[in-house]
Amino acid sequence: MSDPVVEMNENTKRKRILTGVVSSDKMDKTIVVVVANRKLHRLYKKYVNNSKKFKAHDENNDAHIGDRVRVIESKPYSREKRWRLLEIVERAR
User: Fold this and answer.
1) Beta strands per DSSP E along the chain
2) I want to staple 77 with a disulfide (CB 3.0 to 4.6 A). Which of 2, 60, 81, 88 is the partner?
């Protein structure tokens, strides 16, 4: 994944949208999304894989492990949750 997509809402605030895979759905109304990123190393010209985990609010417990989802930046729901489930792009098989 390259740069995050930026969306403008009615208040003209920019909110980041990330796409990732759900790695955990064991918490109530919370999913853990792993966002993977590939970058070209400046010196060695090889691709380096980076990943980061985000906790996202899932109001209806719709997403499950393995689903590809899009999350959007939002208000703080808890100490660690700063993202909200926007849509499920692809269901796990």
Assistant:
1) 5-8, 14-24, 30-40, 47-57, 68-73, 83-90
2) 81
